[in-house]
Amino acid sequence: MIDxxxxxxxxxxxxxxxxxxxxxxxxxxxxxxxxxxxxxxxxCAIRGEVPPPPLRAGALVFAADHGVTAEGVSxxxxxxxxxMVLNFVRGGAAVNAxxxxxxxxxxxxDVGVRSDLPPHSxxxxxxxxxxxxxxxxxPAMTAAEAEEVLRGGFDAAQGMAREGVTALAxxxxxxxxTTAAAALSAALLGFPAPELVGPGTGVEGPALERKxxxxxxxxxxxxxxxxxxxxxxxxxxxxxxxxxxxAILGGAAAGAAVFVDGFVVTAAxxxxxxxxxxxxxxxxxxxxxxxxxxxxxxESLGWEPPIRMAMRLGEGTGALLAVGxxxxxxxxxxxxxxxxxxxxxDKREPGGGT
Amino acid sequence: MIDxxxxxxxxxxxxxxxxxxxxxxxxxxxxxxxxxxxxxxxxCAIRGEVPPPPLRAGALVFAADHGVTAEGVSxxxxxxxxxMVLNFVRGGAAVNAxxxxxxxxxxxxDVGVRSDLPPHSxxxxxxxxxxxxxxxxxPAMTAAEAEEVLRGGFDAAQGMAREGVTALAxxxxxxxxTTAAAALSAALLGFPAPELVGPGTGVEGPALERKxxxxxxxxxxxxxxxxxxxxxxxxxxxxxxxxxxxAILGGAAAGAAVFVDGFVVTAAxxxxxxxxxxxxxxxxxxxxxxxxxxxxxxESLGWEPPIRMAMRLGEGTGALLAVGxxxxxxxxxxxxxxxxxxxxxDKREPGGGT
Lengths: 354, 354
What we know:
2 copies of one chain form a homodimer. Chain A is α/β, with parallel strands linked by helices. The first copy, chain A, is built from 14 helices and 6 strands. The relative contact order of chain A is 0.18. Chains A and B meet through helix 4, helix 5, helix 8 and helix 13 of A and helix 4, helix 5, helix 8 and helix 13 of B.
């Protein structure tokens, strides 16, 4: 994936500095809008303009099935993946409502749902296979499939950027995918196998124990040691996680702000970082999921998500809420008066702070 | 203020239960939208309807001056209060941009600015005095002034509710008001005097030390022991804090959701709770301020704010961002399909979770 990673360049430090100069002249104590200001400055650098150009939001949701559901790792049957994709294209899911709230175009991409879905204008088919294989027993996919799905995600993000999207919220649907995300994240971070396993959609008790055993069993099958990121993806999947990592690279290469959702999308961010560290300069964390392993992933990325509402739905719901925070912050950036314009004293008292 | 407190009744537990029944049928694992769902259910109970009726946002910003600025407790000169009020009425401040982003009507209320402000349609004059007295040396206001300012805030909130506002974001402007808020909060919570003192707009070093000494000195003047809440307000102020406490009661009495901003508005929430505990059922926390004492106030209220962006501007900026989160959540509540409507399996696997 070296060719895709090479297409990502870092945002301009000169534009970043110019953004801060502007922000520090606005009628507020310097830096008193905290992360709202940081996000505004980063958005300017990403888009290459001060003041920031208008934000156009888009949401990209990748769906796929997981062979590992045969081991009983999820609270829901695997057919819910396809059912929820139909719910997305009909507009009835949480991500639809939140996308409408943000004025975000929503595109759903089938990168590996087990059944064939009826054609729909909001549904892009980039299906690599009818679900991954059961990663407890064998590799989830082939090396060729891993590369294909990553390219599919890259292309989907580039497509949205070409249509004018400047802030891309990433989401996913895939019964079983918190199991794959836990395995992939632990492998990439060098954590013990079960360390990031949690309840997902709601397993508990013996089923949660089984979920841990499945990831442990998979690690025994794979064997010890650090592995190249694409090999980790091949071993545990899933297709939507690979596509999400590709979408992070694709969004970054296109100069879009990329909003990372919860546990599963953050697993994809870990994969994207391993493939292309500079892509992280385009990523924005959104919320801290109720899924316990999310905090560990975020810590490893050095990210402090702005929203803490104990959400654990996925689909891109947290990412879309965070897009709203950036949009509000950009409005303040663009519309606030400077001290000079407003006739407000910027001369702070002697002894008075920064 | 017993008559005002008596006008607040608790939201309906029956409507709350009906809201949860509806939420649990929507296409998502139960409770997987976390606090977004809790807020939606609470909003239904507050408004008395399931599904939730449309949200209409309003922002109410109270401004006043503080005699204690004579002690050098702020990074900015006192005249900035009036200058910023003019900035508000002209639309150039952060709160204006964020109010526009939320489609919120903004009303600014002068309850005690030191200078006389020119009339403006967006500015309500309920001035009690030309700033409080210096609470290091003498009580900040008289008992009659304390009552008058609380009633002014109550009336302003009731007025916005009469105009159709269902979600009220509260904000403030007043150079010196983090000093008053720290003193008021410590007195109400029984904390040692300087425990909640922090940098505010940006004092540090010797100036921050002076700010602590001022609050300690005021506590020595006032003498030990718990005091009735209105007496605490009289002793340390400020006018905008009293008005904010009144606005919380007024919003609650009118059946509005009341969004509490950062350190200063949360001080007012502590005062409102002391006067009328049931008003807390109408309050929504917004963000965790960078002002260190805010976490202590929130802990005492048992509130977990959804936004953590290290903001410390005040004005109602955090409260307005949180209104956007409620609005997005209500949209999901109203627009999401149920499992039946969407044809999605709600039958979770045996062993699967809650």
